[in-house]
Design goal:
mainly alpha; Rhopdopsin 7-helix transmembrane proteins; 2 domains; 0% strand; elongated
Length: 402
């Protein structure tokens, strides 16, 4: 059972750590990101050292029988410490979080030191990676060792479950709420593991055995750990999905603004201070185009300013009538009329025929919040048709939308 579930937990922990490597590699020093990375890393190491073939090789490397046990269990204590540190960063003011983290570090270090000290006092034994816990049950130093480990483990899981359930009530993001509750459930399940391990000690004294419950102990320990890891992994995964969606939508928006921007650029080259890089090259490098998209929006608006002397009032009136006849309503109506005005202004500019009394753009007095500016320009671009080269001005009304 252990060797079946441990690799699954190892895969989850390793995936979580690898997902966060990019943030760490780019020099981001968000304390919560570092703490979460250490949660995944120490968890992965605890499962690595607990897998039987690795256990055997670690023992051979150090020349100490079953030394992999306190190493793996020290990693588990480190997981608890980093989990509590993460929650401190999330839920406490910085000064109070730092005090909590120092306390967690001192407690964790003391427990780990105690584990290695008591392990050194255990009686010599043959290698028992598959039944280490029950093999040593008769040893008084092991009883102290197990009591220390399980007590620290259970206390950490109880604090984790309680804190996560409390934070879940305050969280607003639905994914975070689900994740915190999953961590709380996983931490609660691991308490069954602790109960069985402590029952083995009691059974040694009063004369009963829990050897048959060993598979259940491992199952509850690993299932609880898996749920806890998944709970911490989900917000990371959700953030990555949002980033990918933002990257894709940014590139799509940049491409959709292309025809409108290119028409403006041809008519008013001065709106572009620096030629943008190829979008294909940015795609190949997996780069975001957020800044380029922002620049493209600014340049389109600058182009509109340059085209104001060519805005024919008759064109706006005709466009409004025709677009309403098509059944358009706000905000599409304003965007479509603005697109028609730009189309005809480009034709007039090409022929250098400004109007005596220019009209306003249909969207000139439309309050567009900054966060919605990109969506408004995309609406204009969706209705915009570039004028044909050298299209005569007298064909404007003939080419108006039907």
């Amino acid at each position: 059972m252990k060797d079946l579930l441990h690799p699954l937990c190892l895969a989850i922990a390793s995936a979580g750590f690898l997902f966060l490597l990019r943030d760490l590699g780019k020099g981001r020093r968000d304390a919560s990101v570092v703490a979460l990375s250490l949660v995944f890393l120490s968890s992965a190491l605890s499962f690595v050292f607990s897998i039987t073939p690795v256990w055997v090789r670690v023992d051979h490397f150090f020349g100490v029988t079953n030394i992999a046990a306190p190493i793996a269990q020290s990693c588990v204590i480190a997981v608890l410490v980093f989990q509590m540190n993460l929650l401190a960063h999330w839920g406490k003011p910085p000064a109070k979080a730092r005090r909590r983290i120092r306390c967690h570090a001192i407690a964790g270090t003391a427990v780990i030191a105690g584990l290695f000290t008591l392990f050194a006092m255990l009686s010599p034994a043959v290698q028992q990676p598959t039944s280490f816990a029950l093999y040593y049950a008769h040893d008084p130093f092991y009883k102290a060792y197990l009591t220390l480990y399980i007590s620290a483990y259970a206390a950490g899981e109880i604090l984790l479950a309680r804190a996560c359930w409390t934070y879940a009530r305050r969280a607003q993001d639905v994914w975070l709420v689900r994740s915190l509750r999953m961590v709380a459930v996983g931490a609660s399940i691991t308490l069954v593991y602790s109960a069985i391990r402590l029952s083995a000690l009691v059974g040694e004294v009063v004369g009963f055995s829990v050897h048959s419950l060993d598979p259940i102990a491992w199952a509850c320990g690993d299932i609880g750990a898996a749920l806890t890891l998944i709970g911490f992994f989900l917000p990371t995964l959700a953030a990555r999905v949002r980033n990918v969606r933002g990257w894709v939508s940014g590139h799509l928006a940049y491409r959709r603004l292309g025809p409108l921007w290119e028409a403006m650029h041809r008519a008013v080259p001065s709106i572009v201070l620096m030629e943008p890089p190829s979008q294909l090259a940015e795609l190949a490098r997996l780069r975001s185009v957020d800044f380029l998209l922002y620049r493209r929006g600014v340049e389109i608006r600058d182009g509109q300013i340059e085209l104001r002397p060519y805005l024919d009032p008759d064109v706006r009136e005709a466009a409004e009538q025709q677009r309403r006849a098509q059944g358009l309503t706000e905000p599409d109506l304003t965007a479509a009329v603005t697109a028609d005005q730009i189309h005809h202004a480009l034709i007039r500019k090409e022929h250098r025929q400004p109007v005596d009394t220019p009209a306003e753009y249909a969207d000139e007095r439309l309050p567009v919040p900054p966060k919605q500016e990109s969506q408004h320009l995309l609406r204009i671009a969706s209705f915009f048709t570039p004028p044909m080269p050298s299209q005569p001005v007298h064909q404007q009304k003939a080419n108006a939308p039907q």
